[in-house]
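Thread: "does anyone have the structure for this chain?"

Original post by V.I.:
We have the sequence but no experimental structure in hand. Need at least a predicted one for the grant figures.
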Amino acid sequence: MMQARALIVVALVAICLAGARAQQRPVYSARADLVSVDVSVRRGNNPIANLTAADFQLHDNGVEQTIEAVSIEAVPIDVTLFHDTSPSLSGKLDDLKSDIRRIVGLLRPADRVRLVTFGMQVDVTPWWPASESIDLSRVKVGRISPVNDALIVAMLRRPEPDRRHLIVALTDAVDAGSAINTGAVDAVASRADGVLHLVRMPQKSGARYTAGQWLPIMGDAGGPDALGVAAARTGGRVHDASGSRDIIAAFRLAFDDFRQSYVLRYSPNDVERPGWHEIQVTVPGHPDAIVRARRGYFVQDSRAGM
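Reply from O.Q.:
Generated one for you, tokens below.
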């Protein structure tokens, strides 16, 4: 049973990755050759405002591209909150629920939120309007801690054309029970259409797993550091939080950063379309700026089979 579960999850991720590759081009816009990139530009904790296309340099597989448009989009945001419900955080469950409610209160009326948790499996709620109180009554402490699986489920989503997707994971980033390793998380992050921020909380002191908990696969050697690399691939980052004040501050920073990020659009020139595309974005006029953007995208070869 244990091996069968692992094989099923691996197969599902492979199918999702294949589907993500096949659908990659339509994601960016109605034009198949137009690429959109969310870019955060900050000096310290403050966004740098009023930048134009001329302020940016963008390279696609090492070739400089002409940026056709740049904007700060005020479109509604879908927020996926990964709420770690592992045994190692059991003593903090009520605090985390309170934090979730406060976080939802920071969203705008047109925004939506969904919750990713786990018990014996990864559970995902429907989208919840930010204008309504979110129901957390069914959130319980899980028996395993499949952090990797939950992150992949959170990222495997195509945003609707008129919305953007932000993923914020409140977790100690300690995996115990996933069928997927951090290498797969990194692969999915490379193709994700959302920006992932990891709010890393300290593990409960003295926490241990009991004999009644099902731990089919222990966490791989990559661990929390590898998850931080995956977040960076999407244009996000890691925030360390020791308590509720830090968690709320980290979410506010991630949300404001996403809401105030620039959206660059361009049609790739002088680069082969199929395959992996490495993206590099700089702002030469602001050499001290912190620039975060997705690291690349994948285009399926139209001649290749599914």
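V.I.: this helps a lot. The chain has two domains: 2-72+261-299, 77-259.
O.Q.: and Residues 77-259 form a domain with the Rossmann fold fold (CATH 3.40.50.410).
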